[in-house]
Amino acid sequence: MVESANGRLDCTAAMARSALTREQRPGVMFHGRGNEPGWHVNLRHDAPELRLVLDYGARELSLPYRVVAMDNAGGRVRLASRRGEAPFELRLEARACFDDMSGEPFPARVTLTFEGQTYRGCGQGIAPQSSSIR
To answer: I need a surface site. Which of 29, 60, 86, 97 has the fewest CB within 10 A?
Structure first.
């Protein structure tokens, strides 16, 4: 059993969850999303570039990034913009995360800072082919 401020999740050894694949997210290696306002971010699998969709889809940007910190033991990575005119910071952390609207569990916490605003959400890596996570 896992408990958080968002509720309780009963776990079983045989529990399976479908993984997001490149079939569903072509060209993407990581997908993160959040609510209020609705936003999502996709990291390309073949180049250091992210696609950022903000304000429920009203704004879309493609921005190059660089890795500024990586802590493999702690399961954390911090990315920052390669363009001075569009600064951002994206933090990914391998920790249980529950969508604040649906309660759906995710394996990563995502924090995006962009244009003076901080967006918080959840995310997961994208499997190259169809599979289930156990």
So the answer is: 60
Return phi, psi of residue 31, to 5°.
Answer: -130, 125
Strands 97-98 and 17-18: unpaired
Q: Cis omega (within 30 of 0) on the bond before 26?
A: no
44 beta partners: 28
Supply the pTM of this predicted model: 0.79
- For residue 131, the 8-state DSSP code is -
Predicted confidence (pLDDT) per residue in 55-71, tens digit: 999 999 999 999 999 99
Residue 43 · residue 61 · CB < 8 Å: no
Please state, in angstroms and rounded to a whole number, the distance separating the CA atoms of residues 88 and 49: 12
DSSP E strand boundaries for the chain = 2-4, 7-9, 17-18, 28-34, 39-44, 49-54, 59-71, 76-81, 88-93, 97-98, 105-106, 108-114, 117-125, 132-133
Residue 90's contacts (CB-CB under 8 Å, 6 or more residues apart) are 32, 41, 50, 65, 78, 79, 80, 110, 111, 112, 113
